[in-house]
Each structure stands twice: as structure tokens, then as C-alpha cells.
Amino acid sequence: MNEVLMSTPGDHYNWPMLKIRYLTTEAAVAEVLPPGFEPGSRPEVTLTVYNVPVNGEPEHGLLTTVSCKHKGQEGQFALGYAIDKEAEIFISQEKFGQPKYPADITYYRLMEQVGARVTHQKYTFLEFYGQVTETLDNGPNFDEHEFWVKYSRKAHYTEPGFDFPPHVVNVVSNYGTAQKLKVEGELILRDSPWDPIKDRLPPQSKPEAWLWTPEFLGRSVNLGEPLDADAFEPWASTIGNSRWRGSNGGPLKS
């Protein structure tokens, strides 16, 4: 049921990612996407809990994406990377527009038990507990398209606009699969004004989950075309460093 991978004990390099995916409504996906993007062929939400070495040290994180299209290309729009390392937050945003922000992440596997918990601004907004049940087919190699947005708002107290207008950042990752394990478990989403997954992307299907040990074959990150700056203006004010729409760095005001 569970094939053993050859790796050095305690090595963070070979940690599997916990992938959780569910369907929401197309209207919900459309609501969280900025101008220039539209919902993908299926209204999917993907939550990826990971432990990946970045700059030589482990980074625990939760990546939240929704399926989308940009100029006909299917891909994933990144709403946020909740991570436990401050060093990577600001440089990732400054250079690439990658929406990383601080959070407390618990992620573990003990034999066949898998657990994850994510807390931000004292709200534990996501938990998952499950058990590995079977080995799945690895499938073919594939390319994953992810979209970030890079911009710099105008240095003025009252005037809108940008010093660097919003541009799409195209991220293409090339993957193989070393191992894929089905996980049966429970996803718990809780209300949080800082991480409004439950409110803005409510599940409409039973989540599916799996442990995925990727083979990293390549990655490119490139600045793409500009977005309509006037249309994007309302989306420039976000919750923290995420891509959730907010108000002056905090949650939307009611």
C-alpha cells in the first residue's frame, strides 16, 4: 500500500506536500479574481500544505489557489502563501509579486496519520486530519501554470494610482511525481477576517486529499503583460501581503 522512498532520515528535501482540493461555485471564484482573469474550466480551490527548503532552510507554508484562465491559459491564481519564515516574505513580494505573509504552520505525518493546522492573527482558520489509505498512480510529468501580480502603489497619501502598474507574473513549474498517496480525512475551515477561505470560497463538494512527493524538473518566473491599472485599482488594497481584497492592509470593512 505504501511504497518506501529512498531518502536520508530527517532530510527536509523530500517532504511530501499535502494537497487538498474541493469545488466551490464559479461565482465565488469570479469574485476573488482581479480583472484580467476569469474562472477556469472547473471552480476548484486547491490548498497545499508544504515543507520545502528555501534559501537552505525549511519553509512551512499553506498555498491557496483557485483555478483560472488568463488570455486562454488555464492555471492557478495564487491568493496567498501563509508561511513561517519572515525572511522570504518581503523579498518574494518585492521581486516577484509572490503573495507571501506570516502565519504559524503545523504539518506532520506519523506513520499513516497526517495532520495540518494554520493560524494567522490568532485565528486557526484551517485544520486537516487524515490517514493514508492507498498508493495512487504517479501519472505523467506535467507543467503547472501559476499566476502572481506585481505592482507598486503610488507614493501619495490620497491619490490613487501606481508607481509601477500591475503586471502578471507567469510561473511555470515542471514536475514529475515520485509518490502519490491517497488521504482520507476531514478538512476544517473556520471563519477568519484575515483568511476568508470559508466565507469567500465555500466548499460545494467533499474535499479530496493526497500526499504528493514531487520531482522538481524545472521552473521559470517571468514578468508578463500589464493589467488594466484603473480596473485593478480596487484590488490593489489587500489583506496583508495576500491577494485577498482588503482595506488598507487589513480585512474589508463591513
UniProtKB/TrEMBL annotation:
One of its GO terms (molecular function) is lyase activity. InterPro entries: Acetoacetate_decarboxylase (IPR010451), ADC_dom_sf (IPR023375). It comes from Sediminihaliea albiluteola. This is Acetoacetate decarboxylase family protein. Pfam families: ADC (PF06314).
